[in-house]
Amino acid sequence: MELTEVVACLNKLAPLHNAGSWDNVGLLVEPSPPHTVSRIMLTNDLTETVLQEGISANVNMIVSYHPPIFRPLKRLTMSTWKERIVVKSLENRIAIYSPHTACDAVQGGVNDWLASGLGEMKSIKPIIRSNIKADNYSVSIAIQSSNDKDLLDSFEQNLSQIVKFVRRTNVDAIEYECQCAKSKMKDIVDMSHTYNLDAKFNVIELAELPASDTGMGRLCVLNTPCTVAELITRIKKLMSIPYVRLSLGSDKTVTSMVNTVALCAGSGSSVLSGVKADVYLSGEMSHHEVLDAASNGVTTVLCEHSNTERGHLKSMKKSLEDMLGSSLVKIIVSLVDEDPLHIC
Fold first, then answer.
1. pTM score, two decimals?
2. 305 is in an annotated binding site
3. What GO cellular component entries does it have (predicted)?
C-alpha cells in the first residue's frame, strides 16, 4: 500500500486538527516516493533501541505516539540520538508518523482507553472540548436572474468545480449559498468576475462549535462508586503495572469512596487543574500540583508518563488492521518500548 494511502487512514483514525496547537503531529519523516508500506511498527516512544527493532523486523513505517521530532532540528548529523533516528530512518527507508495529542482527543483514543479500565461508567466526557473543524466562511452570491440562461448554467458548472452549493431562486435574483475555506473564496471571486455577472457577495465568518465527544482529558462518573483501593487495583490491572504513586486528598483514606475520576494520559496537570473530581489519574504531575490537589480534597494517582499511554497501542493496532486490511499491511507492536523510569 502506498504511504499516502496509509497516512490518509491514520488521519481519519485521529484527525490532526484535534491535536494541540503546540504539537508536532502527522508525517514527520518521508522517504523519497514512491514508498510502499507493507509492515508497520507501533511504539509509544521511538528510541534508538526501538528503531533498531524496526530495522531488524524490516518495517517500512513506524507510528510513534510521541513525536521523535518536536523541537526543530538545525542539522542532521550523528551527534544526537534524535538526529541519528532521522538519518537511520531515511537510510533504511522507514517513514515516521506521530498522532500524539490528536489520538488523546479523539473518541476511542488514548484517554478513552485509560477510562475503560475504571469500571462501568454513568457518563464520560472530555474535560476540554475540541472545536468542530468546519469550513470557515458562509458565502452567498446573488446574481440577477435576467442574465442569459446559458451563461448562468456555465457559471453554475464552474462553481460546482470549486465548492458544493445550494441554489435558491427569488423573484429577481438567483442566490448560490455555500460554505468554504478562505483559500477557496479567491477562486470563487476570480471565477465570478470572468462572467461579468455583477454578482453581489455576502460573506459571514463562522464560529467553531465545541464537539461533544472529542477533546483533552476525560471526566468520568462511575456507575457504581468504589473505594480508592479498588480503583487502584483496576488501574494496575489495566496497565499491567505493580505499583502506582498515590497522594490521598485531605481527610481521605484508601477506603474513601470514589464517584468521579478526572483523567489525562501522560502529563495531565494543565488539563486537570481545578477540575472537580474525587480522583485525578495521570502519568505525572509536579510536586506542587499534587499538593494543590490534596489540599482541595482530591486524591491523585500517578502511573508514570508513558504507562498511561502505551496500552492503547493494542487498540490502535486492531483499528488500523480493520482500516488497512491485515492481508495488505502487517502491523506489529514494539516489544522493547517501555517507560524509562523504574522502581528499584
1. 0.80
2. yes
3. cytoplasm; mitochondrion; nucleus
